[in-house]
Amino acid sequence: MDKQILRRSKLNEMHEFKINDNKQSIDIELSNRLFDTDEYKQATRIGVVLSMDHEFDTYKLIESMLKDGKAVFVPKTDYQNKTMTFQSLQNLNDIGPDEKGINHVVTDTDLTNELELLIVPGVVFNQMGYRIGYGGGYFDKFLSQNKQPTVSLIYDFQLDQFKPESHDQPVDKLIIATTK
Question: Where do the DSSP E strands lie in 48-171?
């Protein structure tokens, strides 16, 4: 199936799922499964996106990470140059929308690409860890230039079969929640 059609189909499923009564408990289950991994336990510097409402809820995850004493970093995107780095997030009150309406850190904090774990978002994943994102290529570019353990927290309906392209970068581990 064409990448764009597959992306659109899975995004529709994600938007439908966001109103599911079980979404919050499934997101908590995914977070708890992450907390049990060696990757999480060993990492002190973790990169994670500030999620949109149809995605796995990273806000509660970030709250827990900060309480655990983890240094949390979220994407700072340069849309003009199509690059991304990570900015320190010390408090969820320090975020606001960027020019595309995507939340980011609005205070002046440290920037880095040196992470010990990166929680990678996506729309569609295959069993080998390859992903289809939103089409900007920011994460594939970052992953090709920076090496750290990677994990994605996904819903079972986000799994599908597709052939990765040469520039695609797989994640190391998928944590998959059953939604039915």
Answer: 71-78, 83-89, 95-97, 103-105, 111-112, 117-119, 124-125, 131-132, 150-155
Predicted confidence pLDDT, tens digits, the chain (180 residues): 688 999 999 999 999 999 888 999 999 999 999 999 999 999 999 999 999 999 999 999 999 999 999 999 999 999 998 899 999 999 999 999 999 999 999 999 999 999 999 999 999 999 999 999 998 889 999 999 999 999 999 999 999 999 999 999 999 999 999 998
Counting Cα atoms < 13 Å in the Cβ hemisphere of 109 gives 20
Both tokens assigned to 94: 């320090």
Closest to 89 measured CA to CA, from 114, 116, 63, 121: 63
